[in-house]
Amino acid sequence: MCGIAGVVDSLGRPVEMELLQAMAAKLVHRGPDDEGFYRNARALGQEPGKTSVGLAFRRLSIIDLAGGHQPIANENETCFLVFNGEIYNFQQLRPQLEALGHRFSTKTDCETLLHLYESFGIQGALQRLRGMFAFALWDTKRETLFLARDRMGKKPLLYYQSEGRLTFASEFASLLADRHIRRQVDWTAVYHYLTFMCVPAPMTAFKGVQKLPPAHYLALRAGKIEIRRYWQLKPGPKLKLSREEACEAIREKLLEATRLRLVSDVPLGVFLSGGIDSSSVVAAMSRAGSGKVKTFSVGFAEKKFNELPHARIVARHYDTEHQEFVVEPKALEVLPVLVERYGEPYADSSAIPSYYLARMTRQHVTVALNGDGGDESFTGYRRHYANRMADIFHRLPSPVRLAVCSTLRAFSPKAYERSSLAAGFRRFADAADLPRPERFTRWMGFFTEQEKRAVLTREILAQIGRVSSPELLNGLFEQAGNLDGADAAAFVDAMFYLPNDLLVKMDIATMAVSLEGRSPFLDHELVEFANMLPASFKLRGNRLKAILKEAVTPWLPPEILRKPKWGFAVPLGKWFRGELRQFLQDHLLDNTFAQRGYFRRSEVEKLIKYHLEGRRDLGHHLWILLMFELWQRTFFDT
User: Fold this and answer.
1) Where are the alpha helices (DSSP H) in 394-466?
2) How many angstroms separate the Cα of 588 from the Cα of each of 89, 307, 363, 443, 593?
3) What is the largest CA-CA distance in the chain?
4) Which pTM was predicted?
5) Is there a contact between 555 and 282 (Cβ–Cβ < 8 Å)?
6) What Cα–Cα distance (Å) separates residue 59 from each residue in 62, 114, 147, 179, 394?
7) Does the structure show a pLDDT above 70 at 542?
8) Which helix (H) or strand (E) element contains residue 190?
9) Average pLDDT over residues 10-29
10) Average pLDDT over every residue of 441-450
11) Does residue 148 contact residue 122 with C-beta atoms inside 8 Å?
12) Residue 628 phi/psi, 5° resolution?
């Protein structure tokens, strides 16, 4: 951990050391002191007529602080590796590899991967890993480069190929240090961004730049790319077990996943929101015997957005060393840092409190566990329940469905805040009669297809052509097949929303301050087990995450178990009508924004007017446009 980069030239042109050093320098760093970091770049295979390779690396030491510098090679230097992330089961794998005759020169986890590859090949090596990772492995004998990402998509990896040359990096800033990459907007990617707040993999907002999808590896040989999936969460047969057996297994698997993530040579802590997932991780850490747990929480001055009181209940229950931070509108002073780090438009506003939480945490520890993944595995979102109800709704006669939807719309005006119950009823009414992919996109997304066609200019729409954001989910819902509506929605969230939005947010927020985030709920063995639990266990009536709550009942205070889900929301609507009103208008109503010719000025003015007047809650729509404009100013105007 922290970042990797490199260049492979299949035509044998030398890879410039100056470029490799520039790419390494652009990888995430903490600050001017660079304390705890190691940076290196190495050119390999620069022989005439052979593929030229250069690998770059920047590391924040977590395990084997003195050793483990990269690129790391095997015993006879036929394979070289740069690795970002952690292999949590390396201590179990190491003796197995030593029994096969492999010799280790370091105590790091990443050296395990090299020897796994030697014995079992790339597919066999990946199947044996438990962890979060993105890596590049160069095999000199086969003249083949392998790029790979972990199963759930915790660690990012970007690449660009043109004219026999492939450039890759963990971050956009590092990748774009290669002057061969032209900065052009991919408008199809931006079209989907307007709906999902993020650019779904494998697309990026830069034309020609791709994300390697989670659970995939890329093989490059003789200039030709082959991409293969090595793991798939399969919506298959459900386990036959009692609720008591399921609860016991959940506790055991969560404890094991947490213990594996406590291996570190530096201090650890945990993000605590006061919700079920992060509170369960605090409980598991306490039971794992890691000493007094350090907890870190973030909140807001606005009471209905503030979860700090619940976090304090858990902190007191486990007698943790607890730290808190309150986010205010002036927090937007960090936007330039975030826009640069994300590298492409990203509009999940919880990136702001996530960054401040990570920054505060980094002052005390170097590794922080979190509760990411619990909602996707155990059906924790209201849209999961809504999707089940919509499937039932579809069985009603058409006149009845029409009457119900009309009634819900009448009692749920658009002016209500998006997070309100009334707004939820209206979203259900607007989409319940649609096919699964379309209704799900309406519930999780923001700009609709109609709204995008209205706000984008004719010239941009001509470049985009006939595309549809809901169609991106068609394949996932087809994989979900005849699953219960809640189970199907949770599966799509795990495969789409989680890797494209939530995990990107957490990785950038933590890496920006040189903090490593670890997620016990994303252990693939726990994810696979939860996936096989009956849908009736996870969603009982309208009780979200029912089986998880039952499992951790012995661990958590009753107030936490009864607490409704809040989410990590930011009061954008209020901020834009108050302290941030001028900031919004300065960016979306000035000539710079208008003269780009991307968005219709009249439509943008209407969105702002409707929001400021309270006629509609369009805070997220405006935030999406604002983050796009800030991205333009950062990556294209400078």
Assistant:
1) 398-410, 421-431, 436-444, 449-455, 458-464
2) 49, 32, 36, 26, 6
3) 74
4) 0.94
5) no
6) 9, 18, 18, 24, 53
7) yes
8) helix 187-196
9) 87
10) 95
11) yes
12) -65, -45
- For residue 576, the SS3 value is helix
Question: Whose structure tokens read 């922290």?
Answer: 2
Task: Give the residue among 388, 377, 371 at the shortest CA–CA distance from 546.
Answer: 377
Q: Which of 306, 468, 476 is nearest to 387 (CA)?
A: 476
Number of residues assigned to the chain: 638
- C-alpha distances (whole Å) from 609 to each of 15, 145, 412, 446, 584 are 53, 53, 21, 18, 12
DSSP 452-506: HHHHB-HHHHHHH-S--SGGGGHHHHHHHTT--HHHHHHHHIIIIIIIIIIHHHH
Helix or strand holding residue 369 (H, E)? strand 367-369
Contact 527, 233 (CB under 8 A): yes
Q: Is the CB of residue 486 less than 8 Å from the CB of residue 535?
A: yes
Residue of 568, 575, 571, 578 lying closest to 308 (CA atoms) = 568
| Cis preceding linkage at 71, omega within 30 | yes
Contact 317, 414 (CB under 8 A): no
Tokens of 604: 């943008």
Residue that is written with structure tokens 């990797």 in the block:
4
Residue at 630: amino acid letter: L
In the block, residue with structure tokens 């998880």: 548
Give the pLDDT confidence of 298-319 residue by residue, as tens digits. Answer: 888 777 667 899 999 999 999 9
Rounded CA gap, 268 and 38, in Å?
A: 21
Give phi and psi for 155, each to the nearest 5.
Answer: -105, 130
| Alpha-carbon distances, residue 340 vs 25, 26, 628, 635, 638 (angstroms) | 14, 11, 12, 8, 12
Residue 480: name the closest of 470, 472, 491, 469 by CA: 491
Of 307, 309, 281, residue with least CA distance to 293: 281
Supply φ then ψ for residue 73, to 5 degrees: -120, 160
- Residue 517's nearest CA partner among 269, 307, 325 is 269
